[in-house]
Amino acid sequence: MLGKGQVVALGAYDAMTSRLAEKCGAGAIYVSGFAGAAARLGRPDLGLMTQTEMSEHIQRICEATTRPVLADADTGYGGALNVQRTVRLWERAGCSGLHIEDQMFPKRCGHVAGKLVVPVEEMEQKLRAAADARDDKNFLLIARTDAVAVEGIEAAIERCKRYSDTGVDGFFVDAPETIDQIEEISKQLAPLGRILLFNSVRTFKSPILSATELAKLGFGLIIFPVDALLTAYRAIEETYRTLLRTGSTDDIAEKMVTFSEFNQFIGLSDNIELELKFST
């Protein structure tokens, strides 16, 4: 279950990284829309992933882990009825929670310039619809606002205060620009008794703080959405360039897990044993 004490959710962009996050001891998994669009489509986070594409992507990640999964739900993919379908699809996929943002569609990554936000009243309607659609009372619903870059920090905080009456379990003020803003988010919203989520993404749009530092500031749910994706990009690029330059991976072999170790990780022997159990 999400939301008990401070939870650090490691970003997974496919089933393999979901399993690896659990192996490394992650308390929870986070599925980012940015990482999903990049890994699945090779495209930017501009609302290009459809509702059903994202739910299928999330389902594969959920099936690969026993850890609770929190997933991005963008703007809810439409109006109130679309939002309700999103909640049901995310629940069916195996999620333990989601966040919905108040951006205007077509949306974009929260740390990219050019965002627009919908009127507060429209977002309130979406959040009430989302809360009403939940089958599992423990399913976490987090209201995200992208208003800092559009309307300023005070307006973003006021939006969350308005959203608190819709049945949400937490708040996510994305892309605060200074430590003072982060402290103000906690000061104003922590008294409402909801979970505070912090997006610890290394874009340098927001200050880089450790999970320990964020805990002291009152943030109970910390997501690291794209660190694994960015690291994988660099490692894979090096591998490909080495292969094309030298014709082998001898120069980087020490950085590679062995074939047998990887097969052990993905459960080859267990699956063969299971296959034999049911063979004639």
Short key terms for the protein model shown above:
alpha/beta; TIM Barrel; 2 domains; 8-stranded parallel barrel; 13% strand
Radius of gyration: 20 Å
Number of strands: 8
Widest beta sheet: strand line-up: 1-2-3-4-5-6-7-8
Pattern of helices and strands: EHEHHEHEHEHHEHEHEHHH
Tally of individual domains: 2
CATH topology of the largest domain: TIM Barrel
What fraction, in percent, of the residue positions are helical? 40-55%
Query: How does CATH name the architecture of the largest domain?
Result: Alpha-Beta Barrel
The CATH class name of the largest domain reads Alpha Beta
- Say which CATH homologous superfamily of the largest domain is assigned: Phosphoenolpyruvate-binding domains
Strand content: 5-15%
Spatial shape: globular
Multimeric status of the protein? single chain
Number of helices: 12
Give unreliable regions as ranges.
Answer: none
Give the structural class: alpha/beta
- Mean of residue pLDDT values: 95
Give structural notes:
The chain has 280 residues and is an alpha/beta fold. It folds into two domains: 7-225, Phosphoenolpyruvate-binding domains (TIM Barrel); 232-277, no CATH class. The protein is 46% helix and 13% strand. The chain has an eight-stranded parallel beta barrel with strand order 1-2-3-4-5-6-7-8, surrounded by eight helices. Strand 1 (7-11), helix 1 (15-23) and strand 2 (28-31) form a beta-alpha-beta unit. Helix 7 (153-163) packs parallel to helix 8 (179-189).
